[in-house]
UniProtKB/TrEMBL annotation:
Residues 197-347 form the Fucosyltransferase C-terminal domain. Pathway: Protein modification; protein glycosylation. Protein O-fucosyltransferase that specifically catalyzes O-fucosylation of serine or threonine residues in EMI domains of target proteins. Attaches fucose through an O-glycosidic linkage. O-fucosylation of EMI domain-containing proteins may be required for facilitating protein folding and secretion. Residues 386-430 are annotated as: Disordered. Residues 395-409 have a biased composition (Polar residues). It is an enzyme of class 2 (transferase). Residues 1-17 form the signal peptide. Residues 59-163 form the Fucosyltransferase N-terminal domain. It is a single-pass type II membrane protein. This is Fucosyltransferase. GO terms for molecular function: alpha-(1->3)-fucosyltransferase activity; peptide-O-fucosyltransferase activity. The keyword Transferase applies. Gene3D superfamilies: Glycosyl transferase family 10, C-terminal domain.
Amino acid sequence: MALCLWLIVVAPVCSWGQRPVDTADSVVFQPQSALTDMEFASVSTYRGPGNTDPRPNNKLPILLWWSSNLFPHFPGDTERVDCAHSSCLVTSNRKVQLYRRTASIVFYGTDFRAYEAPLPRLSHQTWALFHEESPMNNYLLSHNVGIRLFNYTATFRRESDYPLTLQWLPSLDYLLKPTAVPLQEKNRWRQAGLAPVLYMQSHCDVPSDRDRYVQELMKYIEIDSYGKCLNNKPLPDYLEDTSTATGEDRRFMSFVSRYKFHLALENGLCPDYMTEKLWRPMHQGCVPIYRGSSSVADWLANNHSAILIDDFSSPRELAEFIKALDQDDAEYSRYLEYKTPSKITNLRLLEGLESREWGVNDMSKPNYLNGFECFVCDRENERLAAEKAHRKNPKQNLSPQPKMANSSHMGCPLPSPGYGPVEHIDPNDG
Ligand SMILES: *[C@@H]1O[C@H](CO)[C@@H](O)[C@H](O)[C@H]1NC(C)=O
Ligand SMILES: *[C@@H]1O[C@H](CO)[C@@H](O)[C@H](O)[C@H]1NC(C)=O
Ligand SMILES: *[C@@H]1O[C@H](CO)[C@@H](O)[C@H](O)[C@H]1NC(C)=O
């Protein structure tokens, strides 16, 4: 609805479908209405350190948030942001799409639909992609033609411009939290009939095809499965509410932390895509049996803090390994050594947590949405300054190099069967 109105307003001016709109056209088209309130609002006094940007609001580049569900400001639809090095005006008001000052359009990956994209694309505008969710939410972006539309990205991949790889790990302290249930007590629960392994999954038909693997594993080792997938145990009444079962509810946490091992299989298998499925058992002091990111070892606390399914040639071999660990307290305890800070030896993990500027549930740090917005703002101001310098003195100042994303910012291998050859999958399987 909003889009139709907007089309009616601009269509006569931008001549949709007749000739490409370029920068010159948008100079002609500079309606006064869209940002009026903000344009004349007083310049805010806060500055990031290193930001000496003297410009008033009506001289700042504009970043337009295109996805209607995502605008990290409240209230209103337009705000000035003063970032580490420079300032921008950010807005969710689509009327500014054709402004010359609109330097970048920011998209939310999960909502991105090619047919809703602001086309034709203006040559002076960059596109920025924020996609913190699972790659399975939008396959278009896993394809090279899809991802190359964007100049800047914030995704789970370390190759992304603004990586969110550790977004599910709140802090180092979260990992260091003492084991919730001591091993002796876990062993008592084992004797009382608890299985060694927990599975808790209610989203069953996913690209990683995890249930097929778990089903096979269940033939060789006892697994208590409480979720909808491969369910073999009822949850106790007090945990029946599934909204509780997925959160950080204290009773839920103490229920699951009695298990020595937690099956932790992501819904999609992509390099650097790791979620709370990995970090939460470690927080509780349970050993994750993990499949997801093929490069997960790059981020683990040390080389002995999770069991990686891909290290085993079959579910049966994995089951033998878990059974042996279940019987060997000393060896099991080695998997929890990282609870002692000096045993966290992975520098990439330590540096990744130390150097990220955004926080998770941490009010003292910006969130990654505002962080990415400022990243784009600073990059765009740099680009505009470089272009200006180039126009003034083309011989001395090179024009800035174009920059665009590629499949390393988002890509995932094609889905494959979770267990066994593809011919064994029932053709009627979703
Ligand atoms: C794990 O790390 C320890 C100490 O950092 C090292 O001695 C050991 O060889 C490593 N093991 C593997 C399998 O890399
Ligand atoms: C942004 O990406 C597009 C391709 O998707 C490219 O044509 C354009 O040159 C890039 N812009 C900048 C400023 O790098
Ligand atoms: C993809 O982009 C990264 C930088 O973001 C770059 O280092 C890499 O060379 C690019 N790969 C290809 C194949 O263009």
